[in-house]
Structure formats: structure tokens, C-alpha cells
UniProtKB/TrEMBL annotation:
It comes from the Eukaryota. This is INSC protein. The gene is Insc. The lineage of its organism: Eukaryota, Metazoa, Chordata, Craniata, Vertebrata. InterPro entries: ARM-like, ARM-type_fold, Armadillo, Insc_C, INSC_LBD, INSC_LBD_sf, Inscuteable. GO terms for molecular function: cytoskeletal anchor activity. GO terms for biological process: apical protein localization; asymmetric cell division; establishment of mitotic spindle orientation; regulation of asymmetric cell division. Residues 13-57 form the Protein inscuteable homologue LGN-binding domain. One of its GO terms (cellular component) is apical cortex. SMART domains: ARM. Residues 70-522 form the Protein inscuteable homologue C-terminal domain.
Length: 522
């Protein structure tokens, strides 16, 4: 069934059950009240109506959040109805249908209470949806009044069809509502001369982008990228640049956002901001975040990269400077993430980094625990080192900056909590440090330094102990490759059993041996 697929970033999903119940309680009780009142809103006097409209201007974002929560509940209920219908649990189907009917009417009434210029098309969809929900409720009511299996069987297909139609109308209405709200916010950004109204509109727009890719597509389609870059080209709005750039970074996670960025010469604008020393560090950091987003190696659409290459040298230079002068771990993370992504798609970036002494700057930053303070930052640094290590000149830079010692320390990276994102970051740090060691160990001086720092015993431990590598296969493969490279340089450092099991066989055989190894075997 084509139910509305609301994003997993909805905050309801990410809180504990008691907190979620508390948030849902108001909506659920409203729903029961609406059942009693048959969804008829209590009439209000004209003065009170004006007061209501005035107060709603200051809580557009809150109203939209309420709408999205209500939509999430309806979407969840529709999915559950389909599941109960499959099991022929007619009583449950009917009670849930009544609840959906009330939620839909409550949502429509709530939305109409805070919006004043909804379109005729929207009103048509509201009526279609309400009528179809009433029809749906009537169908399910008839089902609980009969026990005849043949009648129930014949009605089941009608109910399924009605459920599908309700879901379609609901999805289309939500799409219209969100498009309408995005248009209103963008109109405020484009037409208002007021700093306060513009800031408020950008803040609301950013909140919408946090609700997932679907909303980002709507905003991009309605010209959000164009409007925000227009702000970034006006000196009078300089204080809004960080907030505006943060919103742009969110919108550019979708292809439609990238297309708009290309059309308005967004990369040139970002390069100008990054190279302008009169901007604040916060502005530079948010510009770096946009660069990190649009150069992400996970993106499948790369049409914009041709124009990026034209501005790459000055962008890379500005990012290296930002890394060097970063006053906090967050600023360093954004700048280094942008650099790490850039090194993936063009080797010229690595050559520029070498000329800029970036290796020395990054290695020095890693010794400052206030700047490189998380596995996420170390992941960016070791990504850059791994990609630069394909260059022959890189080895001497690593030796001079005590980089082998840093890579050895990264092999011991462990999460401070059970947070899955942190665990994954630690795995990437271990994997990439092993990859970097393997690449650099073609240089005898680097290999010798690694052996003196006892890298071989650590690599053996990572191969043989699944818990040391958090059961990661990618870390295992990288460690096996690095171990074999170092073993060529110094076979005497390995015990015979390690050589026979981890170095001598084919890589795939050693891999299978290690993945099947019991912890007690170590």
C-alpha cells in the first residue's frame, strides 16, 4: 500500500516509550474529544479569531511539527490497519479506522486554524479524504455486524481498495500542505527586508529539512536553494550566513538540491565565502559543511563536480587553513570532512594537499585533544592520510610528522560507549589506519618505523581477536594486508604459527580462518 513514508528522523521514534506516550497523549485525547464532538470545532468570536491568527504567526514551526506528528500517527495507524485486515481481526480494524478518521479530521482542523491562504486544490483533497474516511468507517462497521464468512470475504477486497485510496489521498494532501508551507517560507525569505522575519523563516525551513529527504526535495523543487544562495550574496544578511549555509547543506543531500546549486553557481559562491577572511569562523565552518555534503562519496549524482574542479585549489587551500586555525573540535571536523571527501574524487586534490603541508597540519592537530577529540574527527584525518598515501612523496612527510606513531595509536581506537555510530567510526579508523600502513610500508623507512613501534603484534592481535576489531570483516582484511606487507620487510618479527596461518596462505584462507576463530583460541 502506498502509505505516506515519513522519515525515521521523526523525533517520536527516537525517544523512550514513556516520553513518546507523553508526547502522543495530547493528540490521542484530542482524538477522543473529537469523537464526542463529531469533529465539529467549537465556534469562536471574531476578536478571538484574530488573536488566534496573530499568535499562530509566532509558532509556525511548532504548528508544522504538530502536523508532522499527527501525520506520522495516521501513517502508522494505516499500516497497522492493513496488518489487522490481513488477519481478519474485524473489531480491531473498525476501532482503528474510527481513530484514523478522527485523527484525519483533527489534523485538517488544526492545519486550517493556523493557515489562512490554503489553495482550492487543498480544500478539494481535504474533502475527498474526509469523505473517503467516512466511507471507510462505514464499511468496517458493517463488517463487525455480521459473522457470515462469505460476506466478510467479499467485503475484504472493498476495504482493501478503500484503504489504498485513503492512503493515496492522505499522502497527496500532506505533499500539498508541505509544499504550501515551503512556498510560504520561501516567499518570506525572498520578499522580506526584515532581518527578524528572514531569520525566522530560515529557521523554520531548516526544521523542515530535518524531517527527511522528501521534504528536502519539496524545498529544492520550490526554489529553496536559489533563495538561500541569494541571501548568501547579500552583505546585509552576513549575520544569517551560518544558519543559511546549514540549511543549504541539508537541502543538498538530495539530487534536486544539487541541480539547483549548479544552476545558481553555488560552488563559486561557496569558494568566495571560504576565501573571504572577513567572514566569521562559524560562516567558514558552515560553508565547509556544504562542501562536505556535496562532495560526499556516497552520492550517486556527480554532475556538479565539473564546476567544483574549477574552484578546487582555492577551496582546498581555504579548508586546510580552517583546519589549522580551528578553535574547536566541531570546526575541525567540518573542515577535515570536506577535505576527506575531496580526496576521494580527484588525485590532484592530494597533490595540492601535499604542496600545502596539509600532512604536517593534520598530524599536529591530532596531538591536540581539544581539536581532534572524537573518533569522527580521527576518521576524517586517517581518510585523508589513506588517500594521500598513494603518492610516493607522502612517506617522508609521515616520517617527519611522527605519523607512523599516530597510525599505530589509531589501531587501538575503541568506542567510549555502545553508540552504533561511534562504534562504526572506530571500525573505520582501525581499517583506514591499517590500509595507510599497508600502502606506506612499500617505503623501507616507514616499514622499519612501524616494526619498531610493535605494529606487527598489534596487527596479529586484531586479526586473531574478533572483539579487538569489533567483529569487523573490513578491519580484518585491512590488517591481514598490512601484516603481510610488514612481514615481507621483517619476517623474523612473526611467530611461526602467525606466519603459517596469517601470512603464508592465500588471503581468503587466512580471512576464513580468522572469522571462524573462537575468542578462547587466542
Amino acid at each position: 500500500l502506498p502509505f505516506l513514508s515519513l522519515p525515521s528522523s521523526m523525533h517520536l521514534i527516537q525517544v523512550d516509550s514513556v516520553q513518546r506516550w507523553m508526547e502522543d497523549l495530547k493528540l490521542m485525547t484530542d482524538c477522543e474529544c473529537m469523537c464526542i464532538l463529531q469533529s465539529k470545532p467549537i465556534s469562536i468570536e471574531k476578536d478571538e479569531e484574530n488573536e488566534l491568527i496573530l499568535s499562530s504567526q509566532y509558532s509556525t514551526c511548532d504548528n508544522l511539527q504538530l502536523l508532522l506528528k499527527r501525520a506520522w500517527i495516521i501513517s502508522t495507524e494505516l499500516t497497522r490497519i492493513a496488518q489487522k485486515l490481513e488477519k481478519n481481526r474485524w473489531q480491531r480494524v473498525h476501532s482503528m479506522t474510527v481513530r484514523v478518521n478522527c485523527h484525519v479530521r483533527s489534523m485538517i482542523n488544526e492545519y486550517n486554524a493556523f493557515t489562512r491562504n490554503s489553495s482550492e486544490e487543498m480544500h478539494q483533497f481535504e474533502k475527498l479524504l474526509k469523505d473517503k474516511c467516512s466511507e471507510f468507517t462505514a464499511f468496517t462497521e458493517r463488517c463487525i455486524q455480521t459473522e457470515d464468512e462469505q460476506i466478510l470475504k467479499s467485503m475484504k477486497s472493498c476495504i482493501n481498495e478503500t484503504l489504498t485510496t485513503v492512503a493515496q489521498y492522505f499522502g497527496q494532501l500532506i505533499e500539498l500542505v508541505l509544499t504550501h508551507e515551503a512556498q510560504n517560507l520561501l516567499r518570506q525569505i525572498e520578499l522580506s527586508d526584515s532581518m527578524y522575519i528572514t531569520e525566522s523563516a530560515i529557521s523554520s525551513l531548516f526544521s523542515l529539512t530535518q524531517e527527511g529527504a522528501r521534504l528536502c526535495r519539496i524545498i529544492a523543487k520550490e526554489g529553496g536553494v536559489v533563495a538561500l544562495f541569494k541571501i548568501c550574496r547579500q552583505d546585509c544578511f552576513r549575520c544569517l550566513y551560518p544558519q543559511t549555509l546549514r540549511t543549504l547543506a541539508s537541502i543538498c543531500c538530495v539530487e534536486e538540491g544539487m541541480h539547483q546549486l549548479e544552476k545558481v553557481d553555488g560552488i563559486l559562491c561557496l569558494a568566495d565565502i571560504l576565501t573571504d577572511n572577513t567572514h566569521s569562523e562559524a560562516t567558514h565552518a558552515e560553508a565547509a559543511a556544504v562542501i562536505a555534503q556535496i562532495t560526499s562519496p556516497h552520492l550517486t549524482f556527480t554532475q556538479h563536480l565539473s564546476s567544483f574542479l574549477e574552484n578546487m585549489e582555492e577551496i582546498v587551500t581555504a579548508l586546510v587553513k580552517l583546519c589549522q586555525e580551528a578553535s574547536s573540535g566541531e570546526v575541525f571536523l567540518l573542515a577535515s570532512a570536506a577535505l576527506a571527501n575531496i580526496t576521494f574524487f580527484d588525485t590532484m586534490a592530494c597533490e595540492i594537499l601535499l604542496q600545502l603541508n596539509a600532512m604536517k597540519i593534520l598530524l599536529a592537530a591530532c596531538s591536540d585533544k581539544h581539536i581532534v577529540d572524537t573518533p569522527y574527527s580521527r576518521d576524517q584525518v586517517v581518510t585523508i592520510l589513506a588517500n594521500m598515501s598513494v603518492l610516493d612523496q607522502c612517506a617522508s612527510e609521515i616520517i617527519q610528522g611522527n605519523g607512523v606513531q599516530l597510525l599505530m595509536e589509531m589501531l587501538f581506537e575503541r568506542p567510549s560507549s555502545g553508540n552504533s555510530a561511534e562504534v562504526a567510526a572506530c571500525e573505520r579508523v582501525q581499517q583506514k589506519s591499517a590500509v595507510t600502513l599497508a600502502r606506506l610500508s612499500r617505503d623501507p623507512e616507514v616499514a622499519d618505523a612501524a616494526i619498531k613501534l610493535s605494529c606487527i603484534p598489534r596487527l596479529v592481535k586484531l586479526c586473531r581477536s574478533p572483539t579487538e576489531r569489533n567483529n569487523s570483516d573490513s578491519v580484518l582484511v585491512a590488517c591481514l594486508v598490512a601484516l603481510r606487507r610488514l612481514a615481507v620487510m621483517s619476517p623474523d618479527e612473526l611467530e611461526d604459527s602467525d606466519f603459517q596461518q596469517l601470512v603464508k596462505p592465500r588471503l581468503v584462507d587466512s580471512f576464513l580462518l580468522c572469522t571462524n576463530m573462537e575468542e578462547s583460541f587466542v
